[in-house]
Amino acid sequence: MLLKPNRTKYTKSQRGRLSGPVSSFVPINNGRFALIAQESRFLSAHQIESTRQVINRYLKRKGKIWIKAFPDLPVTSKPTEVRMGKGKGVVKEWVCRVRKGKVLFEVDGVSDQRILDAFQAAKKKLPFKTLIFKNSWKLPLKI
């Protein structure tokens, strides 16, 4: 089940910029461990779903996962070999704007080692560097 909004005010939008870190960084709200982005990028619904599946597989469907990234930005593209003009293309996929310092996933309810293994495997599914953070650890100076 890929994430996408049920309805939006406008079907197509412009991409915008991804500059600077998250303005209000809140480390962890729900879980004990969190996966935090260390770079700014667009994260597609497919990447979020595959990361969720890997985490679920390592946790053996026990524990609780909170997904903090939601793809709400439509990305359009025109078909190949189409001439210039004639309007904007159709919506191809939905992406999430991920800025540096954003919490992507939170997990709680299983042992620490199992969560660390799950996040190590989940890091490989994401197109940018991430940081594993535990609630009791001190916050790093540079995120």
From TrEMBL:
Xref: InterPro entries: Ribosomal_uL16 (IPR047873), Ribosomal_uL16_bact-type (IPR000114), Ribosomal_uL16_CS (IPR020798), Ribosomal_uL16_dom (IPR016180), Ribosomal_uL16_sf (IPR036920)
Any one GO molecular-function label of the UniProt entry: structural constituent of ribosome
Gene Ontology CC: ribonucleoprotein complex; ribosome
Keywords associated with the record: Mitochondrion, Ribonucleoprotein, Ribosomal protein
Coiled-coil intervals, chain numbering: none
Pfam families: Ribosomal_L16
One GO-annotated biological process of the protein: translation
PROSITE patterns: RIBOSOMAL_L16_2
PANTHER family cross-referenced by the UniProt entry: 50S/60S RIBOSOMAL PROTEIN L16 (PTHR12220), LARGE RIBOSOMAL SUBUNIT PROTEIN UL16M (PTHR12220:SF13)
NCBIfam families: rplP_bact
Annotated family: Belongs to the universal ribosomal protein uL16 family.
Protein name: 50S ribosomal protein L16
Organism annotation: Nannochloropsis gaditana
